[in-house]
Specification:
heterodimer; A: mainly beta; 6-stranded mixed beta sheet; 5-stranded antiparallel beta sheet; 0% helix; B: mainly beta; 7-stranded mixed beta sheet; 4-stranded antiparallel beta sheet; globular
Chain lengths: 112, 115
C-alpha cells in the first residue's frame, strides 16, 4: 500500500524555538510532497510543496526538506509563535495520480 | 476571493433521510474531490472528479454518490445515511495538471451527525 506516516502525534515546544515535524513515506518515491496546516474543525490550508529534485524549499519562517534516500520530508517552523499551534499534515499523490494521500498529522503546541 | 464553498456547515439528520452536501469552487479547477475525516483515521478520499461528467471512486465510496454536471459544482449525496457516516466532510479542488504538483484548496468542512 502507499503509506505516508507522520511519526509524532503531538509536539510541544516553547515560543521562539524551531519546530521540526517528520513525514515518512513507503513504496514508490512521490514526485512531490505537500504540507498543510489544519486548525480544529477547519479545512486544511496548503502551505508548501517540494519536488523530488529539490532538496529544500523555504517560505518565510517555514522550511521543507525532501530526502529521497531516507524517504523522508522534514518540516521546520523557525522562531515559532503560539499562533503556529495547529495540526500539520503531509501529503503525497497516489501512484495513479488521482488523489492526495494524507498523513494523520502532527499537532503542534507552542507555549509562550 | 478564490475559494471552495461547502454547505451546510453543520447538519444533524436521521438514519435513512436522503441529504446532499453542496460544494462549489470559483477557480475554474478541473479536479474536485471529497474527503471524510475521522479521529485516528485521518483524511480518506470518498470520490473524485477529473472533469465534467467524469467521476470515480476513492478509498471509501460505499454509501455515497456524486455528480459533476458543471465544472464548478461537485455535490455529495447520501441516499440513505447511517450513523457510521457521522464525520467531518471536506471538498477540495485543484488544477488538473498532475495531481500532487499543485496544492489542494479545501472547503471549510461540513460536520454531519446521523442519529
Amino acid at each position: 500500500s502507499q503509506k505516508i506516516e507522520q511519526n509524532s502525534e503531538a509536539l510541544n515546544i516553547q515560543e521562539g524555538k524551531t519546530a521540526t515535524l517528520t513525514c515518512n513515506y513507503t513504496n514508490y518515491s512521490p514526485a512531490y510532497l505537500q504540507w498543510y496546516r489544519q486548525d480544529p474543525g477547519r479545512g486544511p490550508v496548503f502551505l508548501l510543496l517540494i519536488r523530488e529534485n529539490e532538496k529544500e524549499k523555504r517560505k518565510e519562517r517555514l522550511k521543507v526538506t525532501f530526502d529521497t534516500t531516507l524517504k523522508q520530508s522534514l518540516f521546520h517552523i523557525t522562531a515559532s509563535q503560539p499562533a503556529d499551534s495547529a495540526t500539520y499534515l503531509c501529503a503525497r499523490s497516489n501512484q495513479a495520480g488521482t488523489a492526495l494521500i494524507f498523513g494523520k498529522g502532527t499537532t503542534l503546541s507552542v507555549s509562550s | 476571493e478564490a475559494q471552495v464553498t461547502q454547505n451546510p456547515r453543520y447538519l444533524i439528520t436521521v438514519t435513512g433521510k436522503k441529504l446532499t452536501v453542496t460544494c462549489s469552487q470559483n477557480m475554474n479547477h478541473e479536479y474536485m474531490s471529497w474527503y471524510r475525516q475521522d479521529p485516528g483515521l485521518g483524511l480518506r478520499q470518498i470520490y473524485y472528479s477529473m472533469n465534467v461528467e467524469v467521476t470515480d471512486k476513492g478509498d471509501v465510496p460505499e454509501g455515497y454518490k456524486v455528480s459533476r454536471k458543471e465544472k464548478r459544482n461537485f455535490p455529495l449525496i447520501l441516499e440513505s445515511p447511517s450513523p457510521n457516516q457521522t464525520s467531518l466532510y471536506f471538498c477540495a479542488s485543484s488544477p488538473r495538471e498532475g495531481i500532487g504538483s499543485y496544492g489542494y484548496t479545501f472547503g471549510s468542512g461540513t460536520r454531519l451527525t446521523v442519529v
